[in-house]
Amino acid sequence: MIHHARKRFGQNFLQDAGIIYSIVALINPSAEMQVIEIGPGLGALTKPLLKNLDHLDLLEIDRDLVAYWNQQNLQGLSVMEGDALKFDFLAWAQSRSKNGSLCKVVGNLPYNISSPLLFHLVSAAAAIDEQVFMLQAEVVERMVAPAGSSDFSRLSVMLQARYHMEQVLKVPPEAFDPQPKVNSAVVRMIPRADFNLNGTQWASLERVVAAAFSQRRKMLRTNLQNFSDRLSLTEVELKARAQDITVARYIEWAKALVK
Length: 259
Ligand code: SAM
Hints:
Structural class: alpha/beta
Distance between the termini: 58 Å
Number of helices: 11
Low-confidence stretches: none
Mean pLDDT: 95
CATH superfamily of the largest domain: Vaccinia Virus protein VP39
CATH architecture of the largest domain: 3-Layer(aba) Sandwich
Number of domains: 2
Strand content: 15-25%
Bound molecules: S-adenosylmethionine
CATH class of the largest domain: Alpha Beta
Radius of gyration: 20 Å
CATH topology of the largest domain: Rossmann fold
Strand order of the largest sheet: 4-3-2-5-6-9-7
């Protein structure tokens, strides 16, 4: 099929066989595993994945690509047309998950929607065992950045509060056609078993983290002044900046705010 890559859908198709092999090895598919691939495109990952799975679900927004996959009529493949930002991953995981089989969400994601999509997926984290995504390298660096580093940001705190994350592969633009303008990287995300925030506490974490990072260069004394009567910030913390506070401490503050 001749398919012209669509910029609005963030279409950069993987071409490099070595990289494709490495990503599939990282996903480590096995017959019973429940897997959904976001944005299969022309199938760089899809076909090698399907070789090792009894069943694979695809979620693709581009109608032409959905038609392409439907025509292929491949055994074990289910194709859904839809926007990943609106898809109910929790319902998918709950309906698919069989006793004991691992449940994974994978994909070479459209970079233009990566942050909102990562936040959207948090709502399904309790039912997912692992996510393996290719993203813009700069975003992955922020996701895995430790407290104290210049890349440590709102995205780092929120996602590290919910997942263990690891950058597992760097991918240069030449691995794609068309080539993106940025470097890419693969991240593995495993929901934290010790996550214990309820919905109200999570919303509180979002609020306090957004306030702390609202002006990166300002001290927390300023950024958190609306919360100061309910949080007991130490002298050191009052003079610190948002990037110096650990994820564990943000979680303590989120809980304290809704006690
Ligand atoms: N997996 C293929 C590969 O590695 O060559 C394609 C990756 S391409 C970077 C991103 C894919 O996501 C495209 O197929 C695009 O049409 C699809 N896509 C873009 N926005 C989407 C959305 N909101 N929901 C679902 N799929 C989307």
